[in-house]
Amino acid sequence: MTVSLMYFFQLANAQTPAAPSLSNQSFNGYRGIWFTLGQFFDYGDKYSGGLGTYTAKHKPLAVYAPAVEKTFFVYGGTTKKNKHHLLCMIGSYDHKTKRVSKPRIVYDKMGVDDPHDDPSLSIDPQGHLWVFVSGRGRSRPGFKYRSTQAYSTENFELISEEEMTYPQIWWVQDQGFFHFFTKYTGIRELYFEHSTDGEGWSADQKLAGIIGKPGEKSGHYQVSGVWKNKVATFFTRHPNGNVDRRTNLYYLQSTDFGQNWTTADLSSMEIPVTAVQNDALVKDYESLGKNVYLKDMAFDEAGNPVCLYLTSGGHEPGPDNNPREWTISHWQAGEWRTTVITQSDHNYDMGSLWIDGKDWMLIAPTQDGPQLHGGGGEIEKWISKDNGKSWSKAQLITTGSRFNHNYIRKVMGGQDDFLYFWADGNPDKNSKSQLYFGDKTGQVWRLPYRMKRDWAKPKRVK
Fold first, then answer.
1. From CA 149, how far away is CA 166, in angstroms rounded?
2. Calpha distance 348→339 (Å, rounded)
3. Residue 207: left (phi > 0), alpha (psi -120 to 50), or beta?
């Protein structure tokens, strides 16, 4: 069965393709995908809105390339006529000319509207752009694409098609690609693979598949990162596979390309992790009756891991599950130290964390937005001057917005004036979704919704 025909038989979130594939074509503007999960409660949808930079479990979405002074970024786009037609897109920002290229469609999802299929991005030492297009369970495959020319978005070739969801792809210096991802085996289980060149890959290895009570499988979400030769991941568990009860926080790392795994204190861990209570457990939120929503991870200047996440009383939106607390857990001085930064009004508010010595920064939609109790809001900058121990609000980055802003994604190796980017949208009803980027000082630019030329200057938003 060909890839195109396969999509006529997708099991979820699919529509019949109305036109030939748009893959490997340029597109005349930056238009984000709008999506609703369709799980409605008294205070709205479980999550919805402009989800072009969704999910937190796709990492990274943007990478700075110093050799050409450009930032490359991927996102879930759509056509003008059909806001439910997902296009896996790539664009670039030239820091010398302050212009963005016309975006390129790496892969047309052919009727799929679900941003769970959004792409991730990496760049190899030769400058080739690698776009990993997420699949969804076993009903839709994932794809690995590579640019045919270094530092160019003009053309991509298909490298492989396989089962992978939530791709998190990292280049480890002098070793190669390390890929954390998820497989659906009735539940979500964590896997990894690695490759020296992106073409030949190791066998898939299971990292975590926790079993609770006898026969009770858990399921997992994760956020990962790389620091020098260390790959690391924080993950949660879903009791009985129920994602609405996601809880607990675990941590694993490897410094030998996945051959051996340890906890933060270097205690050896056998994989896959199968026990609920184990040495990788950072904090037992299940005993506290708290849900855990992973947002980002980073490393301090010594390479110690830090996790950014949000806790709440349950999965339904609205005040009944408050407080929703933006929280960090930091491995420091031989122990995990957990600190609350601020509060939010929705479980799926998502932002990013930066660490520069003692100076830490959070940029996230922590202010209520125009669509109260919906995903996202107005974006604020929070700073810490003491290694994340105490925090203060430094700046309101967006204000008076028409729609909520959400999923603020940091650029790997990011440079001003393109340090992070995101999308907006109305979580209460179908809307236009535009894309934005910002710098450390809080200045914001909007990517052009329509483009007539190959390069255009983004518009400054005051």
1. 26
2. 19
3. alpha
Q: Are 25 and 83 in contact (CB under 8 A)?
A: no
Cα–Cα distance between 40 and 46 in angstroms, integer?
6
The secondary element (H helix, E strand) that includes residue 5 is helix 3-6
In one letter, which amino acid is 218? S
| DSSP state string for 310-374 | EEES-SS-SGGG--EEEEEEEEETTEEEEEEEEEES-TT---EEEEETTEEEEEEEEE--SSTTS
CATH number for the domain harbouring residue 205: 2.120.10.80
What are the helix (H) ranges across 156-284?
none
Q: Is the pTM value of this prediction over 0.90?
A: yes
Question: What is the largest distance, in Å, between two alpha-carbon atoms of the chain?
Answer: 61
Q: Name the strand (E) or helix (H) holding 292.
A: strand 291-299
Helices (H), 175-273: none
Cα separation, 399 vs 192, in Å, equals 41
User: Does the pLDDT of residue 460 top 50, yes or no?
Assistant: yes
Q: Tell me what pLDDT residue 18 has.
A: 55
Mean pLDDT over 187-192 rounds to 96
3-state SS string for 299-317: ECCCCCEEEEEEEECCCCC
Q: Mapping DSSP to helix (H, G, I), strand (E, B) and coil, where does residue 243 land?
A: helix
Q: How many domains does the chain have?
A: 1
Summarised one tens digit per residue, pLDDT across range 48-92 is 999 999 999 999 999 999 999 999 999 999 987 667 799 999 999
Whether residue 69 contacts residue 95, with contact meaning beta carbons closer than 8 Å, is answered with: yes
Question: 20, exposed or middle or buried, with CB in 10 Å at 0-12, 13-18, 19+?
Answer: exposed
The CA–CA distances, whole Å, from 200 to 16, 60, 177, 195, 256 equal 34, 21, 10, 6, 18
Do the strands 205-208 and 188-195 form a parallel or antiparallel pair, or are they unpaired?
antiparallel
Q: State the Cα–Cα distance between residues 59 and 49, nearest whole angstrom.
A: 20
Q: Which domain holds residue 391?
A: 3-461
pLDDT above 60 (res 272): yes
CB of 387 closer than 8 Å to CB of 358: yes
Dist. CA 416–CA 422, nearest whole Å: 15
